[in-house]
Amino acid sequence: MIGPHFLTSAFTPRRADAAEFAIAVRVVLIAANYGIPIDVSLGALPYEEGLVERASRFEYLSGVPLVTASAEDLVILKAFAGRGKDWVDVENILIRQMEKLDWDLITGEPSALCELRESPEKLGAVAAP
């Protein structure tokens, strides 16, 4: 398994205490080539395990496959982050995918994440149509 110490040695850390920060908050803050910021989430919750299982391969460019989160998981994660730009992303996902979304997943899964948040009411903004 790849951990924060490997990632902070293989990439440029974005903080002096990147490995320690990652252990505390389960997010590794690194930079790729040309300083492109990357946030690597260290999953441990059952929800996060399900997120990985629901992920699918997407060919970004010919011969360049990416593993991407489901639209439902993007809605959940963006709502959890709760920043202005995240809500814009949620709106765009809903515009494109509304009829295809699994609303039971979207409205059921965040309960485990709510326990981690100091203000769980933010997740209530996403509701089934």
Q: Ends: how far apart?
A: 40 Å
Query: How many distinct helices?
Result: 7
The averaged pLDDT comes out at: 83
What is the strand arrangement across the widest sheet? Answer: 1-2-3
Major sheet description:
3 strands, antiparallel
Report helical residue fraction.
40-55%
For the record, the count of structural domains works out to 2
Q: In terms of per-residue confidence, which ranges show pLDDT below 50 for 5 or more consecutive residues? A: none
From the helix content, strand content and strand pairing, which structural class follows? alpha+beta
The backbone outline, from C-alpha atoms, is: globular
Strand element count:
5
Task: Estimate what percentage of residues fall within beta strands.
Answer: 15-25%
Whole-number radius of gyration?
A: 16 Å
The run of helices and strands is HEHEEHEEHHHH
Describe this structure in words.
The protein has 129 residues and is an alpha+beta fold. The protein has 2 domains: 1-42, no CATH class; 53-57 and 68-125. The chain is 47% helix and 18% strand. It has 7 helices and 5 strands; from the N terminus they run αβαββαββαααα. It has a 3-stranded antiparallel β-sheet with strand order 1-2-3. The chain has a two-stranded antiparallel ribbon with strand order 4-5.
Structure keywords:
2 domains; three-stranded antiparallel β-sheet; 7 helices; 18% strand
Short description:
By secondary structure, the protein is an alpha+beta fold. The protein is built from 7 helices and 5 strands.
Secondary-structure map:
Elements: H1 4-10, E1 12-13, H2 18-25, E2 27-31, E3 37-41, H3 46-54, E4 56-61, E5 64-68, H4 71-81, H5 84-97, H6 103-108, H7 110-114
Antiparallel strand pairs: 1-2, 2-3, 4-5
Helix pairs in contact: 1-2, 4-5
